[in-house]
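User: Can you model how fe (ii) ion sits in this protein?
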Amino acid sequence: MTFTLNEADVIDRIFAHMDAKTTDAGERVWREPVENYRSIERFNAEIELLRRLPVPFCPSAALPEAGSFIARTAAQTPIVAVRGDDGVVRAFRNACRHRGMAVASGSGCARAFVCPYHAWTYGLDGNLKHIPGREGFPDIDMKAHGLVPVTAEERGGLVFITQETPVSNGALDAMPEILSPLQDMFATDEYSDAANWKLIAETSMEGYHIKSLHNRSFYPYGLDNTNIVEISGLNSRIIFPFRRINKLRDIPREKRRMSGMTTDVFQFFPNTHLSVLSNHTQLVILEPISPSETLSIVYRLRNLDANGAPVDLEVARRDAGFVKNSGIEEDREAARTIQAGLGSKANSHFTFGHYEKAIVHFHENLAAHLRRMGAPAA
Ligand code: FES
Ligand SMILES: [Fe+2]
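Assistant: Here's the modeled complex, given as structure tokens:
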């Protein structure tokens, strides 16, 4: 199962909603206990879930050639992902098999990983190739002391990592081909917020707050509470139309194109979203640090123009700057102030209504997965 809506159908539905002043609505209302944003037991269970699902680690474009690597923590595990000489992306626990130092840091291109501590050296395939002063370790089995692999898979232009035995199978079957191999990465970013990762995740899952929270940033270009929501397996896609989509009304139905007329936000359960904006595409992976702190890891890729060539770099950068400094900052501020008020005892639970369909889907799936893993319920 994957996302199936075609452009003409989406545009028809958007015009119908605009004319009737309606939006895609969910069938259920969800009550999420506030304790689930604060409890350390719940947090630990969520970290375990993140290790037991295929979770995006980076775009394929972030590892463009043999030896390209990225090292960072994923669900609190230090991981290094690297493209091998055979073109295959592999990922390892980023800990030396001698005494555990990280063998890679940041990102770059390497021919081998040389541990900074005593220079044990590993190939791009993780094999231990060299121990300086080998005679000091007379009995060591070199083959048994390679970097410890985790599962890495490339799908739809993204690298997914699964650290532990998956809690459910087939999570990647619904992966759509969203990114083109021609889209290059032009920027990365990281920011940290004093907010639970789910509060940040929720900001990108509905358009019910466009007029209110984004009154001066997105609302002048966009529409309030007018969205298409498509559910596909665990994932969802939320389409936010721009006002300029009205221009398409004069164009024959079969010639209408969505490009530049909407923002498409794909939610990959549970902690990642990919936003296809006007001139760039942004992958955001939420790395939970504690129940009240989250690191957002951002990768930005250029979109392609009508002729299939990457848009001008300056155009992509301007697009990214606008989104980052206006709307996203407003979303982050909302998440931070909610976090600050969680202990106020004003709410025992938060209520997600019919206009927050993708969030209801997210919480239903999250609760079901944690139940399956035997996590305690709030
Ligand atoms: S800890 Fe890596 S070589 Fe000693
Ligand atoms: Fe927002």
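A couple of observations from the model: The chain has a mean pLDDT of 95. The helical segments are 7-20, 40-51, 197-203, 210-213, 313-341, 357-372.
User: Helpful, thanks.
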